[in-house]
TrEMBL record:
<dbReference type="InterPro" id="IPR025889">
    <property type="entry name" value="GSP17M-like_dom"/>
</dbReference>
<feature type="domain" description="General stress protein 17M-like">
    <location>
        <begin position="22"/>
        <end position="95"/>
    </location>
</feature>
<keyword id="KW-0812">Transmembrane</keyword>
<keyword id="KW-0472">Membrane</keyword>
<dbReference type="Pfam" id="PF11181">
    <property type="entry name" value="YflT"/>
</dbReference>
<protein>
    <recommendedName>
        <fullName>General stress protein 17M-like domain-containing protein</fullName>
    </recommendedName>
</protein>
<feature type="transmembrane region" description="Helical">
    <location>
        <begin position="99"/>
        <end position="123"/>
    </location>
</feature>
<feature type="transmembrane region" description="Helical">
    <location>
        <begin position="71"/>
        <end position="93"/>
    </location>
</feature>
<keyword id="KW-1133">Transmembrane helix</keyword>
Amino acid sequence: MSNESAFGRRPQAQPALPKGDVLGTYETYVEAQSIVDRLSKAEFEVKQLVIVGNDLKTVERVTGKLTYGRAAATGAASGAWLGLFFGILLFLFTTSPQIGFVIAAALIGAGFGMLFGIVNYALNRRRRDFTSTHQVLASNYQIIIDPELTAKANQVLSQPEHPSV
C-alpha cells in the first residue's frame, strides 16, 4: 500500500508539543522574545528554540454597542476598500485608464458594503448587539530548547548584555 494520500502528497504528521529542556518561563511573550533575540545576537542557533504559550485563554473585549449606523459605516468602509482595490485593478489593466474608475469603484463598493452591513445587522440583531475584539493570551511562555544546547544557551545568557552603540 502506498504512503501517499489521494492527492499524491504524503500525509502530514500530527501536530505535537515540542520536546526538550525548558530554558526559561516568562510572564509575557515580549520577555520570551527578548531572550530569543539576545541568543540570536550572540550567533546562537535559534532554529533549535521554540516559544510555547501555556494555559491559553480567549479574551473578548467589548468595544461598544452595535447600531444600524455603526453597521452601515463599518460595511461602507470595508466595501470602499474592496471597491478601491478593484478600481485600481481597472485603472492598471485598461487601455485608457481614468481616475474616475477608481473613485466610482470605491463609491459603488461603499454602497454595496453599507447595504450588506445593514442587512447582516438586521438578521443578527437580537443575537449580537455589540462589537468586540478577540485575543488569545497565555498565562506564561516557556522557551523549549534541544537538550544538547541547553548549557551553551545558559552560558550565553549568563554573560552581561552589552548595550547597543
